[in-house]
Predict the structure.
Amino acid sequence: MSQTIAAQPPGIPDLKNFTAQLDVGQLSSFFPIFQKGVTVPAIVGCTLKSFLCEQMAIPTDYVTERITTIFLDNRPVDDLDRTIIQEGSRVTLSAAMPGLVGATMRRGGFYAALRQGISHASDSGATEGTSGTVRLKLFNLLLAELGPLVLLRGLILERNELDELLHILSKLPDNAPDGVEKIFLSVSFSGVTT
Amino acid sequence: MDKIARIDMGAAGGPKVTVGDLGEYAGLGGRAMTSLVVAAEVHPLAHALGAENKLVISPGMLSGTTGSMTGRLSVGCKSPLTGTIKESNAGGQAAQVLARLGYAAVILEGKPVGDDLYKIVINKDGIKVIVDNSLKMMDNYLLVAKLRQEFGDKVAYMTIGSAGERKLLAASIACTDPELRPTRHCGRGGVGAVMGAKRVKAIILDDAGMKMRPAKDLDKFRDANRLFVEGLRKHPVTGEGLPAYGTNVLTNVLNEAGGYPTNNFKSGQFAGSSKISGEAQAELEIKRGGSATHGCHRGCVIQCSGIYNDKDGKYLTKQPEYETVWSHGGHCGIDDLDTIAQLDRIDDNIGVDTIEMGVTIGIAMDAGLIEFGDKAGAIRLMEEVQKGTPLGRVLGSGAGITGKVFGVERVPVVKNQALPAYDPRAVQGIGVTYATTTQGADHTAGYAIATNILKVGGDVDPLKTEGQIELSRNLQIATAAIDSTGMCLFIAFAILDQPETFQALLDMLGSFYGITMTGDDVVALGKKVLSAERDFNTRAGFTKHDDRLPRFFYNEPIAPHNQTFLMKDEELDEVFNW
């Protein structure tokens, strides 16, 4: 996977920066919060494809072939070029799923008609992007594959999310933040190439 | 597989075994065999627990061969739960062993007079039906342990627990896995109650001295199987997702789609979903020394199951599947994997369908017997079923009856069978299959997602509204065909995306039987099976008015999409119009 550029912390007052280097064995400690969703800085008003391929620096062929199921605000997405992310949008990424319903949820899949009532309707007209945040969820095979990239780029954690994370991490970083309501966290892992 | 055994449990002087040739059933296996026998030989108005009903046990067309994924066993009868024809299938070792013994079907007929309980031993020397009242009211784990003392570990067991003996409508038939655990169940429709009504507690299948079934064209079969396995291994679902997380990998995705029925279908999302997801389950299993990757029968390369250990690292149950985690989890507001695993263990032990029982407990919660999310209460209710108390008998009779007894309006059943784990208001096309299937609400009735490759019904534009009806029809046809081969339905993912893998499957069938198989042949088989099933149901009194979802799906919008089920009755009536 190509190198990811760490996002600039968004202009949120009193947002503390925190950087950590962890053992790769601790990557799975982040999986529970990835499944619930994490807040990441983003340029909003752009297409979902732009968000994934340009901002997140996920290779296009990986997005096309590996991330076969995508939701925007609970709605399965079929056309990345005609889906616009907005401030606070919730973007969920999954690899191919089993079952008829798994196939039904696939992006542009043969069985998309079976869930047409909840599918994301195509948007028109990306705008000039503005700084904001997006709620990002990762599921299944993508947890380990995209997790390091998302963490290196950085995410914004509320106090309760940070507490949950620190509770799970088996080895606390020496300079773990304390007494803050919200932080911008960037994590790299030894031995992991993003 | 050149013979059929008929065991008349009600014969004068005791059970009588007759072994004959295949006759008009030649070339059939699995669901094709069970459904065509039941449709032809069982009076459609027969009482499902009476002497007129038959329990047909049939391995798939490729079971007992060296072919991969061929270990599904079909059990068919008139269902005591739904009143319709029923085919319920399971993995485990039974299909492979029964096929190697040469039986295309074993048919239990009649009903004994008296209270004796029987075990049936099938081996290379024939079939013996033996009275064994020492097995009475034993549950599956203890029962198999006792049978192993007598018959050893190189056999396969099919058993019923106390639920089957009590003829509860949710009763299942357990098939042992490679480790001889009774964890693979023909779960749906109360087939265990039919076996109990015939007073058969256990069937012991011993293939010692038998060989793998040989293909007509050995080289071509071997090559086709190799290509088939390669196709399964390289596909991201069958080669990665299922082995890593099992079917429960769907929890997060369905919850995100707003199609995860929660608290008895009151919401499409469950706040605790990430705690019981396949991802969380796999991590916990590995951490406790179990496994997130395990096959239910030898010859499985997908390995979608696992081993779930308790907090002390001791085996508790097999990896609960998505449907089980949902029915005992989100449906009941329970977000604790250990509780769900305990409930799964109890289900397997007493021998009941995990979907039916989980849905039933959710209805009991809706009725106010216990609160949603009450973990100890859910286990207590299952213990009532195990003890056979009056309350337990009501619960063990399934969701429909429990809803009636306790005056619950929101009862998610079709033809009295509980809905599985996908809300039809969010995924409308699934609702079409739930409503119209011959089996009662059943997610696997339209599961074989290979219709585009099979060209079932020609090319369908899936983006048109009417496509939902056609897709459901085509899915049900394709599923009926694959259920007849003995192949695990999960092969459909690789077939969907990889035409060469589908061709390998056709080549396996063709080279084994020495015929040329085409997609059209598969479709014709599927239609033949469905037509027979529909005809049986019609003669049993079912009409188009039974092909409907409960009214609350039409009247109660579900969050987050605030949508009701929108398919019109006239559209549903077109599903079987081919």
Remarks:
- Residues 131 and 178 of chain A are 27 Å apart (CA to CA).
- The beta strands of chain A are 16-22, 38-44, 69-72, 75-76, 90-94, 130-138, 155-158, 182-189.
